[in-house]
Amino acid sequence: MESLGFCPDCGGRGFQHMPYTEAYYMAPLDCPGCNGTGSYEHWEENNLM
Ligand SMILES: [Zn+2]
């Protein structure tokens, strides 16, 4: 994923699909790893600690 520049948590989509939480099907959650940007750079910044 790093070579592609995509967030490994969401694969660059910027949100995480949770098929088991039907209550949220209308509002996809922003990926917490990259803050919804889908960018590997942002994911790295959030995972340095
Ligand atoms: Zn992400």
Written overview of the protein:
By secondary structure, the protein is largely without helices or strands. It is built from 1 helix and 2 strands, in the order E-E-H. The chain has a two-stranded antiparallel sheet. The longest helix has 7 residues. The model has no long low-confidence stretch (mean pLDDT 81). Bound molecules: zinc ion. The site of zinc ion (ZN) has 8 residues, from loops.
Assembly of the depicted chains: single chain
Percent range for β-strand residues: 5-15%
Order of helices and strands: EEH
> Would you tell me the overall average pLDDT?
81
The portion of residues assigned to helices is: 10-25%
Strand order of the largest sheet: 1-2
Number of strands: 2
Helical segment tally? 1
Low-pLDDT runs: none
What's this entry about, in short?
The chain has one helix at 40-46; strands spanning 15-16, 29-30.
SSE arrangement:
Blueprint: E1 15-16, E2 29-30, H1 40-46
The chain binds zinc ion (ZN).
Residues 7, 9-10, 31, 33-34, 38, 43 line the site of zinc ion (ZN).
Give keywords.
49 residues, little secondary structure, two-stranded antiparallel sheet, 1 helix, 2 strands, 8% strand, globular, binds zinc ion
